[in-house]
Amino acid sequence: MEKKFKRTLVTTALPYANGPVHIGHLAGVYVPADIYTRYLRLRGEDVIMIGGSDEHGVPITIKAQKEGVTPQDIVDRYHNIIKNSMEGLGISFDVYSRTTSDMHHKTASDFFRKLYDKGEFIEKTSVQLYDEKADQYLADRYVTGTCPKCGNEHAYGDQCEACGTSLNATDLINPVSAITGNTPVLKETKHWYMPLDKWEPKLREWILEQHKEWKPNVYGQCKSWLDDHLQPRAVTRDLNWGIPVPVEGADGKVLYVWFDAPIGYISNTKELLPDTWETYWKDPETRIIHFIGKDNIVFHCLIFPAMLMAEGSYQLPENVPANEFLNLEGDKISTSRNWAVWLHEYLEDFPGKQDVLRYVLTANAPESKDNDFTWRDFQARNNNELVAILGNFVNRALVLTHKYFDGVIPAAHELLDIDREALAEFKNVKETLGANIENFKFREALKDAMNLARIGNKYLADTEPWKLAKTDMERVETIMNIALQICANLAIAFEPFLPFSAAKLRDMLGLDTVDWNKLGEIDILAAGKAVNKPELLFEKIEDSVIEAQMQRLERIKQENIINNFKPKAVAPAVTIDDFAKLDIRVGTVLECSKVKKSDKLLEFKIEDGMGGRTIVSGIAKWYQPEELVGKQVCFIANFPPRKLKGVESQGMILSAEDAGGRLVVIGPTGPVKPGASVG
Q1: Closest CA to 378 of 631, 636, 99, 23
Q2: 247: which DSSP letter?
Q3: Which residue from 91, 226, 331, 570 lies 20 to 30 Å from 534 (Cα-Cα)?
Q4: Contact present, 22 and 335 (Cβ < 8 Å)
Q5: Rounded CA gap, 556 and 568, in Å?
Q6: Are 605 and 649 a contacting pair, CB within 8 Å?
Q7: Alpha-carbon gap, residue 63 to 18, rounded angstroms
Q8: How confident is the model at residue 200 (pLDDT cuts 50, 70, 90)?
Q9: Any bridge partners for residue 143, and if so which?
Q10: Cα–Cα distances in Å, from 361 out to 30, 53, 451?
Q11: pLDDT score recorded for residue 559
């Protein structure tokens, strides 16, 4: 039997305040959380949504060091960018705070101290890399070196980004301090550990037996961790940025960011409801839902619950509907590579189109597997769905109402079979749409909402009121009443998904509020009431707008190629006598054509000042033949002739490999007489 709750607490993963939020964050966490919360509010339920910025940890200190500012400067900057852009997209937090607040510092400190006093931690001394010049222990991200798995020379102390292997800093070969460049030494340090193995039996029972309804990706990852058995995990770090460990002998140590960040949900609730916050965290009649991405499953399903179990007075989450990852144009979104669509930039580039992004991210939500965002799909969904289906139906219904009835809602008369069939199609929309949202199937719920507009368009196309207006206005009155009632249903159904457009539609229909319980009904609008003049809910997005976004991504891709370019190792040394054996000349390309039956080879006719020659070169992948005619190139003139695909090649054209792996023909920067020597 399904458990009933009096209230719901929704939390969203705390975005890390060392950069803005991007579409991956939105699709994975914030848009689905907002849909769910808006749905519960629409039903009149007691629900609050808690958010905030995660502002501690090593990446913030590294960024501050690179920019020559303080960590507080970094988090202040990005907290404000994140908060403002979330508001701009309509993410309706009841509170959006931060982990540098006084409330959070006290809450996290008190939480640690309670567990410490109860004897819930293990003290362990271990060796850690230490930079003697900087006089500090090195957190994992402050160490780089060679990955022992794949040989990548630029691996971090916590992970190799080349092969994806999780590492400890002490695993690295030839470790180097990112602070001074010195080779660190091993030095003993004491830390406090959470004995997760102690809580493994309870976690196993709670998740694997009591929550089999969780999404397969979440349940499966939890089972994998539990089957591998949990190990004690450090809850403190040697760092000067964070919440000081509140015990004697812990100077220079702070709470590990993974320990303090989830407590931010509690401290932010306290900030919102200082007198009643415990009702939302400790009352068994409260349902707690954590919206996160898949990279946070272990923290929210195993570590944070173990912390709550150890504390003893908190409720555990009822569900953790984690999403998979959203990619961008077929490539993994990456903050470090700037490969992302940033929310604050989107809001500047696409003013008034918040709901377009919300719609596309929901339609493409990575609910069960990784999914892909492309600008072409974004344009197609806007033009072919929002404009052509939803916007088109609403506009037609309102325009016809103003045309035939001066904007006054007509009364319905006797219904025909065609009317009853249309109404029957969405009679159960409240149940199906609601069930999909409650089961975190937001893509399906969005389809349920859009299907209402499809039904409306088909109904108008089938009944053709513009033709009946010549002979049967009473019949037109019935048709337009039904069409407007469908519009009112759309205002309800789309409220959780497209809040800006739903508000605009309510205004056009003269609806001050909407009632979830009326969804599926045909008496939402009273006959005789006036509707306002129609405005377009959506507008087409032109190719030029999309091209500009794709060109921006292409520039970023090329910049990344150049920035990541690493020259090949220098070949073994040669003498001047070896070099002198090569006869390098300059020639002018007279003709250039593709070699038959080859995708790689081009045939050159070269004016070499010595009667001319033919050279075959494998650069067809990077050049069209006509691009090269008339250009001057450098070639090796004293290579022995050899046949390639039946063509005798009398030399080798010189080229260089650019950062992207493309071969670029080498030639003089100014006109040179053919046959001139290079040396």
Answers
A1: 23
A2: S
A3: 91
A4: yes
A5: 23
A6: no
A7: 7
A8: very high
A9: 177
A10: 10, 22, 18
A11: 85
Tokens 């230490």, residue located:
130
Residue 63 has pLDDT above 80, yes or no: yes
Neighbouring-strand partners of residue 649: 642
For helices 31-42 and 354-363, what crossing angle results, to 10°? Answer: 100
* CA nearest neighbour of 526 among 575, 582, 580, 488: 488
Residue 427 has which token pair? Answer: 């009679």
Judge contact between 119 and 134, C-beta under 8 A.
no
Q: Which residue has the higher pLDDT, 320 or 2?
A: 320
CA distance 537 to 275: 42
Whole-angstrom distance, CA of residue 151 vs CA of residue 376: 38
Nearest Cα to 21, choosing from 101, 107, 96? 96
CA distance 317 to 296: 14
Q: Which CATH architecture has domain 122-192?
A: Beta Complex (2.170)
Mean pLDDT of the chain: 94
Looking at domain 576-678, what is its CATH homologous superfamily? Nucleic acid-binding proteins (2.40.50.140)
Q: How far apart are CA 343 and CA 24, in angstroms?
A: 10
What gap in Å lies between CA 543 and CA 673, rounded to an integer? 47
Angle at 132 between CA 126 and CA 137, to 5 degrees: 40
Distance CA 404, CA 406 (A): 6
pLDDT higher than 70, residue 164: no
Alpha-helical (H) ranges within 426-510 are 429-438, 442-463, 465-468, 473-493, 499-509
| DSSP-derived secondary structure for 564-609 | T--PPPPPPP--HHHHHT--EEEEEEEEEEEPTT-SS-EEEEEE-S
**End-to-end C-alpha distance for the chain, whole angstroms:** 87
Q: Identify the DSSP state of 174.
A: E
Residue 154 clears pLDDT 90, i.e. is over it:
no
359-371 pLDDT tens trace? 999 999 999 999 9
Query: 343-364+372-518 has which CATH code?
Result: 1.10.730.10
Q: Is 177 helix (H, G, I), strand (E, B) or coil?
A: strand
Taking the CA of residue 135 as centre, how many other CA atoms within 13 Å lie in the half-sphere pointing to its CB? 1
Kindly indicate the confidence band of residue 437, based on its pLDDT and cuts at 50, 70 and 90.
very high
In degrees to the nearest 10, what's the CA dihedral of 337, 342, 345, 350? 130
Domain positions in the chain are 7-119+258-323, 122-192, 343-364+372-518, 576-678
Identify the architecture of domain 7-119+258-323 in CATH: 3-Layer(aba) Sandwich (3.40)
Q: How far is the C-alpha of 515 from the C-alpha of 492, rounded, in Å? A: 7
Give every CB contact of residue 122 below 8 A, 6+ residues apart in sequence.
192, 193, 194, 195, 232
User: DSSP state, 629?
Assistant: T
Distance (Å, rounded) from C-alpha 616 to C-alpha 650?
A: 8
Picking from 71, 138, 111, the residue whose alpha carbon sits closest to that of residue 235 is 111
Number of helices followed by number of strands (H, E) in the chain: 24, 26
- pLDDT surpassing 60 at residue 410: yes
- Predicted pLDDT of residue 306: 98
